[in-house]
Amino acid sequence: MAGTAEEKLDLGMTANDIDDDEHDSKERVLQKYFLLEWKLVKSLLDDIVSNGRVSDPSTVHTIRSIMDKYQQQGQLLEPYLESIVCPLMSIVRTKTIELGVASDEILDVIKPICIIIYTLVTVCGYKAVIKFFPHQVSDLELAVSLMEKCHSANSLTSLRQESTGEMEAKCVILLWLSILVLVPFGMSTVDTSIAANSNLSEFEIAPLVLRIIGFSKDYLSNAGPMRTIAGLLLSKLLTRPDMPKAFISFVEWTHGVLSSPTGDVLNHFQLLGAVQALASIFKAGDRKLLVHVIPMVWNDTSVLLKSSAAGRSPLLRKYLVKLTQRIGLTCLPYRSPSWRYVGRTSSLGESTSLPASEKTDQGSHVQNVDSSSSEQSSNCTQHEDFDVPDIVEEIIEMLLSGLRDTDTIVRWSAAKGLGRLTSRLTSALSEEVLSSVLELFSLGEGDGSWHGGCLALAELARRGLLLPVSLPKVIPVVIKALHYDIRRGPHSVGSHVRDAAAYVCWAFGRAYYHADMRNILEQLAPHLLTVACYDREVNCRRAAAAAFQENVGRQDKQQGIAGVIPSIEKARLYRGKGGEIMHSAVSRFIECISLSCVSLPGKIRRSLLDTLNENLRHPNSQIQNAAVSALEHFIRAYLVAKDIGGTDDVTSKYLQMMTDPNVAIRRGSALALGVLPYEILANRWRDMVLKLCSACAIEDNPEDRDAEARANAVKGLVSVCEKLTQAREDLNIQSTEDDMSLFLLIKNDVMMSLFKAIDDYSVDNRGDVGSWVREAAMDGLEKCAHILFGAISKQAVEKMDKLREAAAKVLQRILYNKLIHIPCIPYREKLEEIVPNDASLKWGVPTISYPRFVELLQFDCYSRSVLSELVTSTGGLQDSLSKASISALLEFLQAVKIEDLNEKKTRERMLSNDILWVLQQYKRCDRVIVPTLKTVEILFSKKIFLDLEVHTPIFCAGVLASLEVELKGSKDFAKLYAGIAILGYIASLSELINLQAFSHLLNFVGHRYPKIRKASAEQVYLVLLQNGNLVAEDSVEKALEIISETCWEGDVEVAKHQRLELCNTAGLDAGLLHKTSDGISNYDSRKKPPTTDEHASYSSLVGSTGF
């Protein structure tokens, strides 16, 4: 079984899943990238649910190995949590009820399931997972009994890879209890044992609560994750309004634990658990409940912080600091200080795209707001003054001491606590806190104090508690921290301080508006740049670079960007040892400018293009490749997108450079031609292809021969051919003459040039340099074979008999050519099965050609081109052709000769993906769209695409998105009829997307054309009969009555009124429906007066009937 699971895992990662995402729906992208192995996980979960338990231990290992890969990106699993957690927890609950808690079998059932759930907790966090736990009131006693069963079981120690599930079961059940204890009823009413105990006083704690507190206290002494979860459970239970007595009792118990620490290990873990539980309680509890126990808890905490037990344990000090800050937050009422800085945080894109005048205006506006807010703050100072409890001053002192701690986790917790506390103080007190933090940067302090001080400053800045007027006092110490380096013996310390200082600078960039940072940045930028470039620690360089980017990127620096490259050239930085590095860096700089679409004047654009052309002439291949990469983006951003002309000059220049005697220039120009976009290639594509073909051949003059130039010519030639063919398909260019001319040129000239390049065995003092050309030629032959065979196979499923026959014979001649064996033909063996070397085959007969060529739909390199032409036959008007093609397609999908169900579903899934691609690629092209919609309608009628599990709603969503575009304002009756039929099929599904399709159907019930209204009403009637979940059961009869008694071919206003009544009956939002209707079916009514004449589109109606 383990082997089978691994095979399934491999199947889930096939090349079929790697498609172009540009036109994919959001749901499909989620499925593809967020959990690539979802099909395998879903099948394993289905097995568990169907059996009611984990029957194969390898299943748990397989699922856990998949989930562990998402440890750093747990959010990617969140869309699937409900589908995973709900059925598994349902098994835990159901089996516990069926088998009973006393059964010995129950733990064997739930342990493997809890391993899976706990794996999700470790990856996604408990907050994301427990949302899907069952939370019926009756489950509380059940979960408590189950927890006691697990608690009393003998624990077996084992390695993580061989986990028995005991620890995971305890953690999951404790988390389950943390939800169940929040039931909105008194615990005494939930506890059934009270009914049997008549001696229980109303002031006594319920036995059920005592049981929970009992095992939770035991787990507070545990060294594992149960300690943290038990603290969470206690915080939820003891902060309930009906638990004051239990709360006081627990605080007294913690008082005993905290006030008598011993040196043994067990007591140490109990101490950790008690402090952690108190910290959780002070986070979740109400201030009125907690304020009475603060003196006792703070006294124990302050004493423990100074004890030797805390000195030995960084984790204990961290929990004590966390508890300290939460005690302080409880002492201070929540308030949002008016003096806090609230700056507008703009994105980098906004900073570089707004005009300078707007930025100046915005900056002055923010400054005015700040000044007005500061005035308001000064006016309301007397209202902000309040008595701060003495305990708060002690807490702040303790947090400041925590900033000096020797361990980073303690300093980090103290810094966050200090930021939270300061947000509840007055402006004057916050200034005192800032002064105390700045004292940490004195020369007598150690590296820990400097690090803690930086973290505190960053927290204050992030929360808007460090006002711009205080920055002049802060910046000097931050600059010192950026260069902090203390020599200690043979080594030095300070990298963590420099890293934290860079974090402070990053926080400045995020918190303050750039107008307030402009003067400050002039001081910080040189130091940040120095650290980013020269610090010996990579983490410091990265942090400083991020801070520099965050700050400088928000300033108006476009004028400076434009002058960088001229300054480099003026300083002659291209010369010397670093010249080559500078050439590559400049190309990369231009590429980044192009990707960001920074606005540049015409003179600067010409200067940058000249710089790239100079780099193309450089003999170093790395510099040339960098220039080519930059040129591709530069031309698209500044020559094509801006439509400023001059593209012909660029083309002519590169064609001239192809014949230059300098071999370096020939190398660069060949690569440059290969990256030109289609908009430039379209004018002189034939000249470029022929020029590159000639450059692939060995030069006649031995002195001019250069293998690298020929290899680059081959690469450029193949790239040009790919761009030409792909762009014609993407842009839906319908020019048969140009297409034939291009493909003939590829077949006759390009392929022959590549065949000659394969025979290039040139040798010089470097060895077999011709191998570079041969390698490029083999890659080119493979890509050209893809191009040619994709185009020819598309014609092999054409509507016209003579074209199908001609395409099949061309394939025969290529596959079985005795003079030249063409290599690199994708799936050659399968092609030879489809197209045998048999001259007697009548390829023009549809029943012979279609069953063979539809087999190409299972191969990615052929499927889309074949399908884009096949649909014109399957959904066409010619009846015999449609029957033959659809019969062949259904036989391929149903895979009569294939018994493997997975293979059948794989074919359906591939076809559905390709159909969505066709609908997007040929948007608004009725020649392809109308037959494609008819094909989808036929396939739906044959129950195709309806049982693909998670992929069915994804496909339906893509089809609906296409219908919204295609049916908007359409007058084509054939398209409208097909679209309405598809909406009917989707609305009949049990998936959630059916409601969206049903809403669209109701839109067409009020369409301006009577025939369309009638067809839509018929579909609505059928949908209501087939899918009873769309409308409330008591409203179905009334809805059917409205549809059957209304004359939908009558007056359009009456139809719209009846549609409104139908919407009310179905419980749909009529306002939203009208809004959608205006956008979909009545689009043209905004352009011209509506008409109720059904003969207005008579020609379309006639065409839809096949005449």
UniProtKB/TrEMBL annotation:
HEAT repeat start and end residues: 395-432
Pfam families (UniProt xref): ARM_TBCD (PF23579), ARM_TBCD_2nd (PF25767), TFCD_C (PF12612)
Ranges for domain Tubulin-folding cofactor D ARM repeats: 315-557
Sequence ranges of Polar residues compositional bias: 1097-1107
Any one of the GO BP annotations: post-chaperonin tubulin folding pathway
Stretches the record annotates as Disordered: 349-383, 1081-1107
Keyword NADP recorded: no
Keywords annotated in UniProt: Chaperone
Single annotated GO MF: GTPase activator activity
Claim: Disulfide bond is one of the keywords in the record: no
Composition bias, Basic and acidic residues: 1084-1096
Tubulin-folding cofactor D C-terminal domain boundaries: 788-975
Protein name: Tubulin-folding cofactor D
Organism: Morella rubra (Chinese bayberry)
